[in-house]
Amino acid sequence: IRKIISLTNRVGLQRTSDIFKKEGGLFFIEFKGVNKLLNVDEILLKVSKGKIDEKKSFLRGVFLGCGILSSPPSYHLEFRFEHEKEMNFLSNMFKNMNIKHLKTNNHIYIKGRENIKKFLHFVGGIETYLFFEEDAVEREVSNTTNRKANFEFANLERQTAATTRQLKFLKDIKDGGALDKMRNDLKEIAIMRLTYPYLSLSELAEKSNGRYSKQSIYYRLRKIMEAYEK
Fold this sequence. Notes:
Elements: H1 2-10, E1 17-23, E2 26-32, H2 40-49, H3 52-66, E3 67-69, E4 76-80, H4 84-96, E5 102-104, E6 107-111, H5 113-123, H6 126-175, H7 184-195, H8 201-207, H9 214-229
Antiparallel strand pairs: 1-2, 3-4, 4-6, 5-6
């Protein structure tokens, strides 16, 4: 609000009083007794021919005057206009800045975090820009963590299902008396698996005191199942 008051004073907008209102979380300023009207066409012409700093100042004013930045989770920046001329002027500025936006019903919408960040960086909204950067990093870390957790959980489910099937199969072989007919290395692996049902293949390899690797245990268990499934 202080910036708006300061701006009106700088451009020489004379008035008798300022009235402040708050409605629905939004602040409004009403200028009473204005005796000098701003020439919008003149302002737009100056901006179009102005230097980069003047364009930045203009966009900051537009953002403060009619811009609304939504909160997460769906970020978007909205500008509302009373006149189509001003809306089209801003739209052309965004096109020149390669900022993707949607123009409809006297509204301009900028969607997508990167597009909004580009605008904020241009107009000098550093604090808000850094907030977007931090939020982007936090969301990426969260998404990566969730993907990793889901991947590990899916792997655990598959391993559990495979181990359960394996144990049932080996128990049936043992109960049927076929275990004693196996060659020694296959019999040893089958007994290890039945003795330590909750250990991983790597942990079983450690239990073998170096006689078998994780891969060799997997190979022998698969060979047992292939042979006795027939």
